[in-house]
Amino acid sequence: MNNIISLDKVSGILVCEAGCILENLDSFLLNEGFIMPLDLGAKGSCQIGGNVSTNAGGLRYVRYGSLHGSILGLEVVQANGTVLDMLGTIRKDSTGYDLKQLFIGSEGSLGIITKVSILTPPRLSSTNLAFLACKDFFSCQKLLSESKRKLGEVLSAFEFLDNQSMDMVLTYLDGVRNPLPPSVHNFYVLIETTGSNETHDKEKLEAFLLHSMESGLISDGVVAQDINQASSFWRIREGITEALMKAGAVYKYDLSLPVEKMYNLVEKMRIRLGQRAKVLGYGHLGDANLHLNISTPEYDDTVLAQIEPFVYEWTSSHRGSISAEHGLGLMKANKIHYSKSPETVELMISIKKLLDPNRILNPYKVLPHSLVQE
Amino acid sequence: MNNIISLDKVSGILVCEAGCILENLDSFLLNEGFIMPLDLGAKGSCQIGGNVSTNAGGLRYVRYGSLHGSILGLEVVQANGTVLDMLGTIRKDSTGYDLKQLFIGSEGSLGIITKVSILTPPRLSSTNLAFLACKDFFSCQKLLSESKRKLGEVLSAFEFLDNQSMDMVLTYLDGVRNPLPPSVHNFYVLIETTGSNETHDKEKLEAFLLHSMESGLISDGVVAQDINQASSFWRIREGITEALMKAGAVYKYDLSLPVEKMYNLVEKMRIRLGQRAKVLGYGHLGDANLHLNISTPEYDDTVLAQIEPFVYEWTSSHRGSISAEHGLGLMKANKIHYSKSPETVELMISIKKLLDPNRILNPYKVLPHSLVQE
């Protein structure tokens, strides 16, 4: 189940089996002049079928968008054993209902994805990465707005981490250093550009950084001079979860919120927990996706009681999503009502019963089990 | 039903009622620094609710992709009167099934869309348009491949028309002239770029055109010097349907096919019909979407018998779509099997019965009526 079936070199449409490792697909495409439209920290082990089933997001989302847009076709095995051939290899198709969409992000609970057809963007020749410091979260937001206009079409990633996340990485990961010493800054932003002309891209990025420095939006910054330095910048952002695992217990929340309210939740959580925990905020700012991670020496139910249900209630009251890119799985199946209306959940249950009447596909996941069983 | 509800000026997320006219939304956004991710010839009269229901494509598709990617939320009234609030205003959400996708492109047959939340891209400052001539369809394809790499991130439209389409426009529309006289070329291509830096964009486009001229991919070409000239170029491409209506009867097919096989169908149709009809090929080459239009002085069943079912059979045998961006409606409901497998159609029927058991929503459309009624 890990074979590449075809690549259309004019359109960039890749067809492969669901067991292909994301990084292997990216390496294959690189030689052919294309890239995968998604990139995750777990790329070395995750499989494309799982990426599609969980509607994975990741670092390239701000540029290439959702899998609901880039997946062109799927082959799915239904609960009754029927194979659904929806493996289209064309960009546009308006014949009947777009059923493949139901299987994107449904975590295997409606059918098992066995083959994937995906639109892959052309590989562009020039990539630049800047590591920047901002004094407050408002400056990060403002920087995002400005970058969408000034960097426009070349912006390919806009990530942020707070000072607490930086501390965690510096403390627990070997060989990592802060590219912007010796000052301590409150927030760090990574801006990546990808384009077809090195000179143009560098000019755009430099003009943007100069302007942002002059206007006070950024307090310091450095542009990676080579691929090794770029990797060392990414290591900081991508190493946060590894550092957290080394630090002890961790409570993880993957939330989507309106940008301007996003960091308020981190600050509120810090006040709630005081000295009992380290509260980290980082994530895909370009997509308004916050990773709120709470680190304690060991798991502690009284800490958990301070976090939940508060974190879900607060997110729900701001019309956010309690799972931006990681699905609901087992642990959050009963929490779906924080993000979805009762009528919507009811229709989900009806569809689950229609496609999997005997409840054999990934049981107890995604939807509240009590409702599915009724 | 034509009110704008909100616009988040950091993220570009627009929420509006379904009756808003597409062009009005685009004008509203223009002042706020954003644009709609879709643009159609019918923009002055079509409504966003209809655009979403029919999964409309159009001119910006090559850049901003499908509505399945850019629609963030919907409010839908179900057949039983229940209002489904799926009006999310966040980019990422992986809580349960993405039910709104079912209503995108289902032509009102599963529910009525009443409100729309959509991600709108930032308005970029620089737009350029080139009108080019190619000697054959292979050169058009090659030009597309090259433009995806060399123009990469600034490419915003790649349209083509054949010589027969140009003739039709020149004959039937007042005040339209061929920008590339006096030679007669076989194919014409419009390439639009949109970016954040006028100087960079012009440099990219000029270098690309020079290279394409030298390598013989294009035989002639002109870049619009101002907005009036750009409009006159677009008038040719967008005026084809109007010219066809003035010419007499027209048989229209909106097909999606692998790029390299796309124009073969036009040539085969010309041979089948001989002197009895004019056969035009044009469309969104960047998305492999062919508009095959056949013009006769008046409607003639013997001509139709030469066209159908051949056109559907040929498309089906090349795994194409018999409706790329116009839906199935009433006329093509019974033709769904040319593009979808029996198992997939069966599941569509089950979903139709689940959501609309009394068959009151847009009856006779999309799916074969005999199957829905069973």
UniProtKB/TrEMBL annotation, chains A, B:
Residues 1-123 form the FAD-binding PCMH-type domain. Its EC number is 1.1.99.39. PROSITE patterns: FAD_PCMH. It holds the Pfam family FAD-oxidase_C. Keywords: FAD, Flavoprotein, Oxidoreductase. InterPro entries: FAD-bd_oxidored_4_C, FAD-bd_PCMH, FAD-bd_PCMH-like_sf, FAD-bd_PCMH_sub2, FAD-linked_Oxase-like_C, FAD-oxidored/transferase_4, Oxid_FAD_bind_N, Vanillyl_alc_oxidase_C-sub2. It comes from the Eukaryota. It is an enzyme of class 1 (oxidoreductase). Its cofactor is FAD. One of its GO terms (molecular function) is (R)-2-hydroxyglutarate dehydrogenase activity. GO terms for cellular component: mitochondrion. Belongs to the FAD-binding oxidoreductase/transferase type 4 family. This is D-2-hydroxyglutarate dehydrogenase.
